[in-house]
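Side project, low priority. Logging it here so it doesn't get lost.
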Amino acid sequence: MASTSASRSSGGVSGRIRTAASTLYSDNQSLIAEIRKALNMMKEVAIDLERDNQSQMVKEIENAAVELSGKYEQSTHFSTAIHSVADRYQLGPELTNFKKLFDDEIVNLKANSSSVPENHPIIRQFREAIWESMKKRRNEVLPASFVVCPPLALHIAMG
């Protein structure tokens, strides 16, 4: 009988931990989605600034986007760690040091991650969008003949 109540108790604790972890995971996923929206908004603002030839402001937004993408990556690691720790948790005779479990899991996730904020796919998309905007703006400024074949256009203009 004692073993039955002990197993119920451990199932209850594990269940409550999984429920709490699920709630934290869900809340963190909402935060991750908001960070992604903010990064997309920053990209759109940077494109507008690029069209207005505000390259210094574009660079400042890019730097902020790199920093925010680092936070995005940290949040993703934390979310994965929450899920992983909750899945592996088992009630034991000693108190559980959850901080150490999370820290160890995050260290493992970072070690297995090849992502550096400057090289994150979100930042690559950001830079590509700015580059496309820059190319488009430059093509609009130059006459079509210069874009297609600059030496021929120069020869015609001087001819």
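Brief comment: The helical segments are 2-51, 55-88, 98-112, 121-141, 144-148, 150-158.
Revisit when time allows.
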